Amino acid sequence: MKRFISHFNLQRLLCLSLCILLLISLGACSQEQGAVSVLWVDADGNLIESKTISPTDSPTQRALPADTDDWHYTEWVVSTSGNITVCTAVRISKTKITWLDADGTVLKEDFQFGDLDEPSFDLPTSTDKWKYTNWNREITENGIAYTAQRTPNPAYFCGNVFQIIVKDKNGTAVSAGSGFVINDSGWFITNNHVMDGGYSANAFFDIPDKDKGTKYTALNILGGSYHDENKDIFIGKLENYASIKEHYNLITFTESYQEDETCYSVGYPNSSVELQINGGTIIEEYSDIYDKINGIYYILSDAYIAPGSSGGILVNKNFEVIGITSIGLYADANKEHYISGGSIPTFTFKAQLNNLNDDNLKALPIIYGL
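The structure corresponding to this sequence follows.
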């Protein structure tokens, strides 16, 4: 019996010794490969998460906080505080940048981060109607907006709008203005005061004449079928317009317009050598700028109109003709400070466009009794 008890105690002692050795071994292993306490905080010091990880794991492998409208997170910065590892999220400012076409269509969206250079984007490609010139940068509540600036392409109007030179019997130039072709047969409209008293007249288009080697094409004005001194309207026809009618673009008219609407004057202000287009906005309809007695109505705009512009066109952004550019208003007698310009609306002459007939054409000397 004593021998059995001794044997039993020996087995217990052996087992106990083995357990102690195992615990000692595990404890040593735990010290060598112990878990790491980690805190992740955002840039403001707010706790994101606390966790113990294996020392073989990198605390920076954790996903960064999601970007916000104003901030972009870039990396974790690791520091230690006692036995605790602290990972702080680093962020930089984030600015949304939007590129817009002139009509407000979004072309592209991107972001600028911190002090890095702003990303860039190419201007839209110019078309036969529009020439893109530059970006207009504006800071908005949502970031930065770049809007493409554009102006009507003069080449689009080169077969429609022309310069008029009026001469007397001796062939001396007595007046100059603008006119515009309304169909591919060469009928045109201008102001009567441009043609008044003329013995002959020529139309000059910004279309190179290859035969003559000039930068322009000159056509004779055959005469007119309608003129009204009170309404200041002249309708006539060009000779041999067929030679350049490939440059003609369909002209459409509108009687619809409103204040603050974008508009463009197209013509030859100050007898400019080349066709000019000037942007502006509709200001109001004004009836007594020039001739209150005859009741001529004028559409008032701040698109530039000057001597030489008379007989040109005022168009909207769809290139519909709103009126005939006819008069400029200035703040001084020297005409150095432009205020606004008046254009005769289309309803003044629209009915006459149904009576375009070669049989009604008369030469200028007959029209004006010269």
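The two ends are 159 Å apart (CA to CA).
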